[in-house]
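Input (Aconitase/isopropylmalate dehydratase):
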Amino acid sequence: MASSAIAPTSAPFINKKELGLSAFSSSQAFSLQRCKRTVSKKICSVMTPQQSERKPATTGSVKTGMTMTEKILARASEKTHLSPGENVWVNVDVLMTHDVCGPGSFGIFKKEFGQNAKVWDREKIVIIPDHYIFTSDERANRNVDILRDFCTEQNIKYFYDIKDLGNFKANPDYKGVCHVALAQEGHCRPGEVLLGTDSHTCTAGAFGQFATGIGNTDAGFVLGTGKLLLKVPPTLRFVMDGEMPDYVLAKDLILQIIGEISVSGATYKAMEFVGTTVDSLSMEERMTLCNMVVEAGGKNGIVPADGTTYKYLEDKTSVPFEPVFSDAQASFLSEYRFDISKLEPLVAKPHSPDNRALARECKDVKIDRVYIGSCTGGKTEDFLAAAKVFLASGKKVKVPTFLVPATQKVWMDIYSLPVPGSGGKTCSQIFEEAGCDTPASPSCGACLGGPKDTYARLNEPKASYLFLSVFFFFFFFFLTSGTPFVSTQSVWLNLVDLVEHRLLRG
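Output:
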């Protein structure tokens, strides 16, 4: 079994804590309607009967217990009660797509609904170019052109466009990595359903939202109807209590969990995170926690909304929302409890996120390069954590160290926010003094590989270390995953590495 910093327990759920109640009522039975759009007979057949317009304000109370995920899906499907395994049509609050999957989704939408069809709601669609952006590759750039053309045709309200690839700052609408941008732009709201054409859409569960990744075909269907047929997942509950030790971050929490249950341990299950440790996490740390549920096979991750959530959203959205909370009588498939005060910094060694090890167990292995960035590790707090370690060491890096902020806001924070205890120095100043590469333009960068001129992309066989959980990159590196504390120490202390110093030959 992979190394564990603590010994959790798993047992059938016995709730000893009142988590709060959410009230919503049954709606009247929805009437049979004919499809109003010119679409294929296949779509009409699966969409009959159609649901009436969702009206959350008219919902009433539930007498039997449900989890947060079940409640959100019940409300979105206008049901009074749902149980795991049920298949229901849900009304989608937000649909997100990007430059990799958007063109395919649009093509399916036009094929099934007509070349001149209009999307179901132009204000509920968010389109974010972020994957293959700062490149001269014609096909990658054409993908962004397709996004732009579609958004113009459909008058999409939330399109975060980029036109000047030479200077991202000249593009005020451009944001960066979709999962972080969704939160920063106020599209993540408690109690809602958010679907995205990306596996890490589950990041938004940090806001008490049902958020999960879907494919292009599903997205094309949602574009035309605003609905999707979903199976209600059972819920695994993870209770984490105790004060976070020094150098332990949310990334360690989720690596501990994945190491415990395996990469398939939450397959098509909701992962609900509660406890005093979770309560103490910032929104960015909660996003890290939920981001990686897909690495355990999870359908979605979710954290109850609280004061931290509402404070974060204060200046980001004016859209009303209604949070939900698991009932005291809710039934969970399993419960896992962790005493986080005993946790140590962890890494996930090659070749799987569940190949968990203590960072100190890897102290003698050598690394070749470091990459700090991505949707799970490129947020402001991640760079602040890295800067603190560089500052404390006072040493220069010994291997190439790449920095890719997730969004334009994060990039600005790197250059403007003082690092605590630094005497007013910013992250960028500390990184420069340590010999790191200049922070790159915000995007997914080398995370998904991309064209050969992608920043920090490997174009030759070489070992690499990335601060990311996934390992399916197009250029096949061996990876090690950990927190910014681990990654920054690695550049001179050789704490983590790959098993070999070259790649598998394809």
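The longest strand covers residues 235-241.
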